[in-house]
Amino acid sequence: MTEARGPAGRDGAAHARFAPGTPCWVSLMVHGLAATQEFYGTLFGWEFRPGPQQPGPSVRALLDGREVAGVGRLPPDRHLPVNWTPYMASDDVDRTAETIRLCGGTVGVGPLDAEDAGRLAICSDPSGAVFGVWQAAAHHGARLTGVPGTPAWHELLTFESESVAKFYGTVFGFQPEPVVSADLDYLTLHLAGRPVVGLHGVGTSLPRDRGPHWLTYFEVADVDEALEHVGGLGGHVLRPAHESAHGRVATVTDPEGARFALIRSRHPEPAGAGSGR
């Protein structure tokens, strides 16, 4: 979890646009758009309104009228892993995409315009983990943070953290800060001295059907109560609720298999996040 998010503060007030490299948005591509809205609407109290229809149909999730996440529909012929994808802010997505290619990453989609909302690219790092890059126009990104139903932290689960940290450091200017532990491979990446994302090297513990991937933590008021909702709505619990250094946390999937975490953070917000979650 990080306090340095850009335009969305803990009260959701709009400030300047997100600093380049800062996670500014999170989105999910699914096959069943209506069923997904029902799941997350019930779980997080989200309401939805239409988003850009290019490159495909999408909706934006809102809390108290403020945008917090996006959900889009996959083309029927695309059989891709369903996963929440964080977007990093960029002042020039075309230049960022070229840097990603030069550093051994892949640009799978774009750069392209999402109507008047902004310009995007969907990329993967050298280990294969997918992330997005967002150049804001009319849509700057999330407008509310720090309350239940909003993204609290983004963590990359990968084979090992050091080499992939060099990639993200070169592309976005992140500075790594390792967690000092003999048995934990974890780096927190910082911008301007503040934590923005975590990298967790888990070696062969990665799910065989996933490979390296980003995991988004969503703030909830009560993790155990949220888990009951997940099960009742057709989701699954991958890791039951447990206490961590940063709060009570659990890992779950939605009905289409998208993995995410639920967390009841301890406040004030910690300097880093993720390790031991």
UniProtKB/TrEMBL annotation:
Q: Domain VOC spans what residues?
A: 22-136, 150-265
Cite the Gene3D superfamilies for this sequence: 2,3-Dihydroxybiphenyl 1,2-Dioxygenase, domain 1
The record ties this protein, via Pfam families, to: Glyoxalase_6 (PF18029)
Which residue positions does the secretion signal occupy?
none
InterPro entries according to UniProt: Anthracycline_SecMetBiosynth, Glyas_Bleomycin-R_OHBP_Dase, Glyoxalase_6, VOC_core
> PANTHER family annotated for this entry?
CONSERVED PROTEIN, GLYOXALASE-RELATED
Specify the protein name: VOC family protein
